[in-house]
Amino acid sequence: MKMKKLIAGALAMAMALSLVACGNKDSGGQSGSQTPPPTTGSQSGSQTPSSGGNDLSANLTLATYPVGKMTDETVIKNLIADFNAVYPNVKIDVIYLDYSNGDQTVNSMIEGKSAPDLIFEGPERLVANWGAKGLMVDLKDLLPAGTYDVTSGSCTNAAGAMYELPVCQTAHCMGINKDLFTQAGAMQYINEDTHTWKSTADFLKAVEAVAAIHPQVGVVFCGGQGGDQGNRALVTNMYGGHYTNDTFTRYEANCPENVKALEALRDVNGIEFDPGIVGGDEIGLFCNGTLAMATCWNVGAAQSDTQGKTANFEIFPMAFPTESGDPVLQGGIWGFGIFNNGDDAKIEAAKAFVKFMTEDDAQYAKIVEATGYWPTREVPGMYEGNEIMTEYGKLVPFMGPYYQITLGWPDARTAWWNALQRIGDGGDVQAELDQFVAEANAAAEAAEAG
Questions:
Q1: How many CB atoms are closer than 10 A to CB 281?
Q2: Which residue, 239, 293, 390, 425, shows the most beta carbons closer than 10 Å to its own?
Q3: How distant is the alpha carbon of residue 187 from its chain centre?
């Protein structure tokens, strides 16, 4: 994959910018620049066993979603081998999940009283779903010094329980086929230095321009929940709409701004609503040249051997279009959770694994690199000289509230893509968003009631 040449700035600056708010409940979910806490305490050097040391013994199951290379068997085996060099009597079996049936797999294990001991995923599942059901262990005692407050806050519920120990983060964005946009004269609508659209009106002009030379510019995919951070961000950014309230207690996606955005997307030439695909399919169609842009894009896709690296055109990362010029990107945060299976020995061993992977800088860097994203605390020298990470780092300052921790999130995601399907079929946009909000808030109320 060709990348735009680095204009200015070092990786250290990109990392410093990665502290922008991605959803701290204590701050009311407002986006804006954050100052990182200083890295304190010793976080480098050799690993030392926790209580139990080398005598710690347990058989654990780790379930991991496909975050970067976290479902690459070789990568995972190497990480476990590092742990077993210190804890040889803790055996770890691995279940590799995907986003098409991973939730069903885990839920079936829970129902069968055999939930995995360890799991690697994000707060929408670990905090707002399984954590809210009382299934997870509080991990705040394992939080490494120097973890960004905005990140740890997104992994903590309103009562202060941390059901996810954050490991990595990213800003989801758009990607465009710069070759096609250049041929169509559409780069005039883009601020290339900041990777932003000049306005929503200019975004729509760009789509029309590319549509004149290319059969299909983009899609609003709605075949399921996969990658829905892309279509949510596209809709809410265009005219300054929102998806939930600022305190992440109610769904409010039926606002006038979102109605206007969905009507514009349905009307513009070059964008179709597609009920047959999800985000991963969109990425594939973008990388093979069928689509001229993707809304489900991030640095992980850019670096993937089967995605970004296979494209025979220049992929140019972009923030989502806004009228205000202040885009709000959907952030991604991933980390470890521990299911409470009622076995104290297993919980102790699982905590030792999480601590081992996240406390020491050298070991922590290994797992962050495996994800392909950014660390959740400053790690000196990480990604130094990596042009792709530096380039995509320019988008991290646009990260906004991490509203995926709103209760009822799993049901809300289903209600969202069903609403998009009905809108794509010609349904009244306001009415369909009203129905979405009613269904999503009913799910949130049910979750709160227990």
A1: 18
A2: 293
A3: 27
Neighbours of 277 (CB within 10 A): 19
CATH class of 11-18+35-170+332-400: alpha beta
Distances (CA, A) of 440 to 32, 54, 417, 431: 27, 48, 12, 14
CATH of the domain spanning 173-328+407-449: 3.40.190.10
Q: Is 322 left (phi over 0), alpha (psi -120 to 50) or beta?
A: beta
In angstroms, the CA 203 to CA 16 distance is: 29
Query: Is 222 within 8 Å of 216 (Cβ atoms)?
Result: no
The domains of the chain are located at: 11-18+35-170+332-400, 173-328+407-449
pLDDT of the residue at 217: 98
E strand or H helix at 156, and its extent? none
d(CA 2, CA 311): 9
Domains 11-18+35-170+332-400 and 173-328+407-449 in one fold: yes
Contact 377, 3 (CB under 8 A): no
Cβ atoms of 369 and 386 closer than 8 Å? no
Contact assessment for residue 311 and residue 220, using Cβ atoms and an 8 Å cutoff: no
Tell me the average confidence (pLDDT) per consecutive run of 10 residues in the chain, 450 residues long.
Answer: 30 33 32 30 40 78 95 97 97 95 95 97 93 96 91 89 95 96 98 96 98 97 94 98 94 98 98 96 96 94 85 96 93 95 97 97 95 91 86 86 89 97 98 98 90
Q: Token pair of 406, please?
A: 């709103």
> Which pLDDT score is estimated for 53?
55
Among candidate residues 406, 401, 378, 407, the one with its CA nearest the CA of residue 24 = 401
What token pair was written down for 223? 């075949």
Would you state the pLDDT for residue 279?
95
**19 φ/ψ angles, rounded to the nearest 5 degrees:** -95, 5
Name which of 376, 375, 374 is nearest 391 in CA terms.
374
Which of 72, 115, 38, 171 is CA-nearest to residue 346?
115
Give me the helices (H) in 297-428, please: 299-303, 344-359, 361-371, 387-392, 409-424
Specify whether the backbone of 332 is left (phi greater than 0), alpha (psi in -120 to 50) or beta: beta
Q: Is 127 helix (H, G, I), strand (E, B) or coil?
A: coil
Round to whole Å and give the CA distance between 253 and 257.
9
